[in-house]
Amino acid sequence: MTDYVDAGEAIPHVQLSNVRGEAPATSAVDYDRIRGARSEPQNWLTYYGTYDGQRYSELDQINKDSIRRLSPAWVFQAGAVGMQSGASTYSFEASPIVVEGVMYVSGPDGRAWAIDARTGEELWRYKHASPYDVSLCCGNVNRGLAVGHGKVYMYTLNAHIIALDATTGKVVWDTVNGDVRAGESGSVAPLIVKDLVIVGSAGGEFGVRGHLDAFDAETGERRWRCYTVPKPGEPGSETWPDDGEAWQRGGANCWVTPTYDPELELLFQGTGNPAPDFDGGVRPGDNLYTDSTIAVDVNTGEIRWHYQFTPHDLWDYDSTMENVLFDAPDGRKLLAHADKNGYFFVLDRTNGELVRVFPFVDRITWGEITPEGKVTPKIYPDEEGVPVHFWPGPAGGKEWTHMSYNPQTGLMYVPVQEVGATATRRRREFKESIPYWGAGVAVDIEDFYGFVAAIDPLTGEEKWRWNNEYPMCASTLTTAGGLVFQGTPTGEFVALDASTGEKLWSFQCGSGHHSSPTTFEVDGRQFIAVPTGWGGWVEGFLPGLLGAAAGDALFCFALPEQ
């Protein structure tokens, strides 16, 4: 008989470090404060900075004159080591939140931190345990946190919505919101509205039915669920087959944070592709509410209106990306959406009426959309085993990474991807937790490029573009300093003149950008924060850089102290 030595009790890994384990208490962050976030630009209170999704800051200490003196103030190393959940690569995709000098940021593999935003010192850390074999479509990623009601909210890889104490990082409550065995997962940054925490599901590539959920911010109890594929008898169900189970596996997941209009009390949520991808023969019809923007009543979860960008999608053109809210000079409430399909849409956000549609990429071969919004498919994988090439590829003319809007210039700054793909239809039977793809797909490894496009959403005119050798795979940020910030796949973080597109500054971060930079101010000093860490679904948007350097560092830039 073997004698075993008592190894003792395990202790939390964080105790074997210099981490304090506590962050300073901040003033209460509640609905009213987030609603007025534009009035306190020293903080970045919510995912997009403000409910409207503009990713614009009134801070101007860093401007066109001072930008040449911008340099790193500190670097935080996230330390992605050891085994990661899911058979896929990780990426540092977050958008840092800052409240009164404390930064809250998430990383891949269920990790979250509180950091001193002035010095970069780690204050507390949290690690959520996810199964190593969790089914993930597009990388081990998390796009951010929400902060409010004394808590930090996170949606995890294995579909748990959790609340942490904002001062200690300890778990307050933990609610399961999906079946990880069926392929459901979570990657979205939560959104706080009133006393609710809003999150959307991921996992459409596994043939799950998408949903948007609201939870009680104090208790974690679900208050409502909005399914994004209607069941038989509900409005929109006529766009799915009458018989069979196609609607139950329909996709339309909500894996990007919605925007919100407090006056209308509407959430504007983009939805994902239908399942299976590419093979429309098993799901005839327009397949609502896939590839759509849905306006959801925040109090009840009911869909008030919808607009579908790609009916009966055969190209994997999710429409999950952001819906930026802005007002026309005459006061009309508008919404801007740059879709994967290569077209830019402007809608009336009170009723979903199409105001304008125009292409924002150079190459579109999959089909055509007229100025009136009529969609005509032209090229798609309709024969078994026959390869079909189309532009844009399945990552789209713009992926999930976000554009920004500067009210000073009236321009949207759009990160554009010019890359095509070849799809060969391969019909497969549905099996739970197995990818439900209807084609083999090869994204082009040459003949690609990218640019930042400055677009007037009222006219559709492109005012300028900043060209790059590689597609743009990170979000833009714009400020009152007359600047636009953009990270590149090869590691450069650049600042552009918001009026002309001239490159004014750059810094090599050592790993590609696939995240969302933010800006804030501490003790009168403005900072620009950007997570870097190349990875995620690289084979889908830029396979030519699959071998590029990975990373997991958060850079924070500022002007030299006087």
Automatic annotation (TrEMBL):
<comment type="similarity">
    <text>Belongs to the bacterial PQQ dehydrogenase family.</text>
</comment>
<protein>
    <submittedName>
        <fullName>PQQ-dependent dehydrogenase, methanol/ethanol family</fullName>
        <ecNumber>1.1.2.-</ecNumber>
    </submittedName>
</protein>
<keyword id="KW-0560">Oxidoreductase</keyword>
<dbReference type="GO" id="GO:0016491">
    <property type="term" value="F:oxidoreductase activity"/>
</dbReference>
<dbReference type="Pfam" id="PF01011">
    <property type="entry name" value="PQQ"/>
</dbReference>
<dbReference type="InterPro" id="IPR002372">
    <property type="entry name" value="PQQ_rpt_dom"/>
</dbReference>
<dbReference type="InterPro" id="IPR018391">
    <property type="entry name" value="PQQ_b-propeller_rpt"/>
</dbReference>
<keyword id="KW-0479">Metal-binding</keyword>
<feature type="domain" description="Pyrrolo-quinoline quinone repeat">
    <location>
        <begin position="44"/>
        <end position="355"/>
    </location>
</feature>
<dbReference type="InterPro" id="IPR017512">
    <property type="entry name" value="PQQ_MeOH/EtOH_DH"/>
</dbReference>
<dbReference type="InterPro" id="IPR011047">
    <property type="entry name" value="Quinoprotein_ADH-like_sf"/>
</dbReference>
<feature type="domain" description="Pyrrolo-quinoline quinone repeat">
    <location>
        <begin position="471"/>
        <end position="528"/>
    </location>
</feature>
